Amino acid sequence: MITMFKRSLYTSLMIIILAGLDACSGGNEKKNKTNEKPVAVELSTVSEGTQPAILASGVVEAAQTANISTRVMGRITNIFVRVGDRVNKGQLLASVWDEDIKAKRAQTDAMIAEAEGAYATAQKDYDRFNNLYKQQSATAKELDNVELQYNSAKARVAAAKQMRSEVNANLSYSSLTAPFSGVVTQKLTEVGSIANPGMPILTIEQNGTFQVSASIAESDISNIYLGDVANIQLKSTGKYFDGKIIQINPSSQFTGGQYIVKISIPGTAKKDIYAGMFASVSIPMKDTWQVKDDAALVPLSARYLS
To answer: What is the pLDDT of residues 166-200, one digit of tens each?
Structure first.
């Protein structure tokens, strides 16, 4: 009887111990599951033939821009255009005070008249002494002196005419004309201001010819070629269109390590496009890998997030 009681007691104790161990194990497992951090993933659509692309930011600019300035110093007397005006090639845009240049031109005209008079006299003397020398009525030294005076008078006439050409060139710089047909986009000074050589007075952009200027990183520039197609989106309007790379700047010395790439804008997309608009540029990479026609590619964006 006692033996059976001990055996029953031993069996009960084992059941209690096993139940306790099971409870402890289940609690730890539940605790561990509670402390696990969930893994966040980004979902992306699996597509066939997805190709990597170079992404860049750009800005719309006119294909041809000119800063109108003068090569002479003087007071600006007139500005004949305003910002937004359309101008034609050769149209007068502004003028600089040129009375002093006109006075110099009058002086050079007088110098030319005087030099030509002296040259005419020297030529007559040379012809006369040349005939006398042939008749042995004048010495060689006398002929040489007359010839020297003749050549000197001839040189003074040429110098005076060159001076007049210089004055006329300066006079032409006082009238500023449009180098091409376009639109006035900036007016950088006012009538009455003093114009200095090289100081911009107006800015003109060519009509209807725009391009996108994009900055490409050093690591991507070797994968871009002239003629490549670029996908462009204007950030302000959301407009999409394709352009072609028409220029690649081979140096980044003055652009902060970025290589400037010019992308043409097709004529069908020029409507409602203005210089200065910001653009997102995507240039598909080619010849960097090969993909089978039936391959399903997973984008790089479908990655684990830490």
So the answer is: 999 888 889 999 999 989 989 999 999 998 888 89
Q: List pLDDT tens digits, range 78-106.
A: 999 999 899 999 999 999 998 888 899 99
CATH topology of domain 66-96+182-205: OB fold (Dihydrolipoamide Acetyltransferase, E2P) (2.40.50)
- Measured in degrees and rounded to the nearest 5, phi and psi for residue 145 equal -65, -45
* Residue intervals in the chain for CATH 2.40.30.170: 53-63+209-289
pTM above 0.85, yes or no: no
pLDDT tens-digit map of 35-69:
555 655 555 554 445 568 889 889 998 888 899 99
What does the block give as tokens for 91?
A: 């149209």
E-assigned strand segments in the chain: 40-41, 47-48, 53-62, 65-69, 74-79, 86-87, 92-96, 175-177, 182-187, 194-195, 200-206, 210-216, 229-234, 240-248, 259-264, 278-284, 296-297, 304-305
Whole-angstrom CA distances from 281 to 2, 112, 155, 242, 243 are 92, 62, 63, 10, 10
Among 148-152, 202-206, 291-295, name the one with the lowest average pLDDT: 291-295
The candidate with the shortest Cα–Cα distance to 185, out of 206, 207, 200, 203, is 203
* CATH top class, domain 53-63+209-289: mainly beta
Measured CA to CA in angstroms, residue 77 lies from 96, 98, 194, 208, 226 at distances of 5, 9, 9, 31, 46
Topology annotation, domain 99-173: Helix Hairpins (1.10.287)
User: Can you tell me whether residue 125 is helix, strand or coil?
Assistant: helix
